[in-house]
Amino acid sequence: MKRHLLSAADLTRSDAELVLETAEELRSLADRPIKKLPALRGRTVVNLFFEDSTRTRISFEAAAKRLSADVINFSAKGSSLSKGESLKDTALTLEAMGADAVVIRHWASGAPHLLANSGWVRSSVVNAGDGTHEHPTQALLDAFTMWRHLGSLDGRRVTIVGDVLHSRVARSNALLLQTLGAEVTLVAPPTLLPVGVEGWGVETSYDLDAALPKADAVMMLRVQRERMNAAFFPSAREYSRRYGMDARRMGTLQDHALVMHPGPMIRGMEITADVADSPRSVIVEQVTNGVAVRMAVLYLLLGGSESALGGTTDVAGDAGKDRTIEGADGSATAGGAA
Hints:
Elements: H1 13-27, E1 44-49, H2 55-66, E2 70-75, H3 87-96, E3 101-106, H4 111-117, E4 124-130, H5 136-150, E5 157-161, H6 168-179, E6 183-187, E7 203-205, H7 208-211, E8 217-220, H8 236-243, H9 247-250, E9 258-260, H10 273-276, H11 283-310, E10 324-326, E11 332-334
Parallel strand pairs: 1-2, 1-3, 3-4, 5-6, 5-8, 6-7, 8-9
Antiparallel strand pairs: 10-11
Helix pairs in contact: 1-5, 1-11, 2-11, 5-6, 5-11
């Protein structure tokens, strides 16, 4: 992997598969009484969130702590940022504190790229969602969830439904799933498909009922009303009728097909409660998998990229014992930190 994770486009197929395989090893920690590894002991991860978030921030925090990293949560509200401090000054402050990784969510598309390429920080930068642009770790956890249930994604058909225009999740998934060999179809009202979508390499459709029978996985997207400044559809009821997932539509899916949602859900609009809570739904599992995938990303960026690529990758060994990870150059590091 590269030094930063800013876009799903940054990941080659081998990079993405390395993250998925590492996450599979780390996923077993969720079922253990002791859920910590010493892999990033002594490292500092800063969660820098300029937008409200619960799911993503807690997921990154849990991931870093399970790898024994020190975590600093930095929220725009109640900080100097609310007094007008610039991103540059905040970045220089974090650099002075010795941050090893900065996980950033920002309302402005491109902010993580600016932070990573400006020279303000020497730490690794992880994009946790920037505006309506991308959310690469969400795409990785979605792919990981599909991979665990469906096996190889080569030739699999994934249908992404809803507010594609404002969705960073849709963009990152479209990029990553194609890298992993899947065929992606975006289904949305014409007003919620972005200009230039024909250049994404995906199929588009306005007819959800036609797309469902051939799908191996269906991902429902949240309608992002907070980003809408116009009437993109007549009413919530009309949207639900045309693009909501209900029991009738779920009945048209193949027996193995998965129902997914990046969360938070608007029950009754994008997805009905009986579908969200059905055995076919993997929405709760996505949350669990998100911690494992973000552990894998932090581990590979900060502690294990060399050892994972060139040596032993038993990152999910006995959490109660010191471990030795062999690096690509044959050197060994005790305690699991590389």
